[in-house]
Amino acid sequence: MLVDAWLPRAAAKAPQAIAVNNLSYGQLRLDAQSAARKLSALGVVAGDRVAIVLPAGTDFVVTFHAVLLLGAVAVPLDPRTPPEQLRARIKGTRIAVERPLDGHQDPAALLLQTHDLDRVAVVLFTSGSSSAPTAVELTYGNFWWSAAGSAVSLGLDQRERWLCCLPVSHVGGLSIIVRSAIYGTEAVVHDGFDLDRVNAELESSDGPTLISLVPTTLQRLLDAGLERPACLRWALLGGGPISKDLLTKAAAAKLPVASSYGMTEATSQIVTRGAPLFCTTIALGEDDEILVDGPTVAPAFSPQLKTGDIGSRAEDGSIEIVGRLSETIISGGENVSPEFVEEAISRHPAVADVAIVGRPDEEWGEVVTALVVLGEECDEGDLRSFCSENLAPHERPKNFEFRTSLGRGPTGKLKRSEL
Prior knowledge:
Elements: E1 2-4, H1 6-13, E2 18-20, E3 23-24, H2 25-41, E4 49-52, H3 58-69, E5 73-76, H4 83-90, E6 95-97, E7 114-116, E8 120-126, E9 134-139, H5 140-154, E10 161-164, H6 171-183, E11 186-189, H7 195-203, E12 210-213, H8 215-223, E13 234-237, H9 244-252, E14 257-263, E15 268-272, E16 275-276, E17 281-284, E18 289-293, E19 305-313, E20 319-324, E21 329-331, E22 334-336, H10 338-345, E23 351-361, E24 365-374, H11 380-390, E25 399-402
Parallel strand pairs: 4-5, 4-6, 10-11, 10-12, 12-13, 13-14, 24-25
Antiparallel strand pairs: 1-7, 2-3, 8-9, 14-15, 15-16, 17-18, 18-19, 19-20, 21-22, 23-24
């Protein structure tokens, strides 16, 4: 099914309306068209994968839309990713954009006026529960239905200003950019979460109407004294376990919270404000695993996405998340694969054995903790430096504990729950 391309449609409807960071839709279209012609001059054609290794902000948004205008596939990557991981994720892409595009423009570049809802638009990497990062292919249709479902759950105002302070290499942050273009509304895109900057935005008389947060960032805003944000309709809160105490504090501060449960494989939101998106169905499978079906589920995981999360059905029919089948650690809204971190740390010559576990934490939800058995003398500072060179910031252990043994089972498998 073909639909009007989102950016050209929004620009044609309201060229003077603000699209992103004070840039109008008319100007964003011109800048994205120019960037698309520069990509075409570099050999990019429809279907090619283009890695976007730029910090969140206007340049990222321009480049992202340029890729879509060519019918290429955007692969957003965090510039802070350790070099070895970054090279692995760039592999297979036609080109990696690591700075704002400049140079020659191809006047013959074919710029699309439609999107095919069945075509892949974006590839996002998620650590999931395995040691190797998983590349999730999301279609234009996945994003369209997610935007429609979000609008039904949260409402939609044409004067919407959605503040993005989440990584745009993750589905929660990128979805703000995509759905804003679909709606023709404004996105305010920050390069990460800066407490003072976000607080100032929310306290402004013309502040954002929506913001996406994880429990850690919401807690920091409340600790900083945020109360009664003037324009905020909803703070969409997800990315990890949400405590009742945090919701109580938010209610006392008159901060409207829309709790959400979602996954990359389902194009962000699955359940928002206690109910599945209108286009989504959820059920309980074997071992009470939550199963998700609907048009937001990535094709590779359709027709029924196995979430790895355990649920229970309440009297009113709603499903509550009570635990995880997988061993994924969720720290500050970021998924961390224990096996991936273990493999990286085990390459340190002084490490004889290592286990990674998540420990409950009020600020982070869970903290990545390394249990290390040393084979030779080594201090914690050396291990931290090694982790900084080989792991992304959210993957680096916050705590190190040194042990003489990890008590593996007879097959050599870690007894992670006991650890």
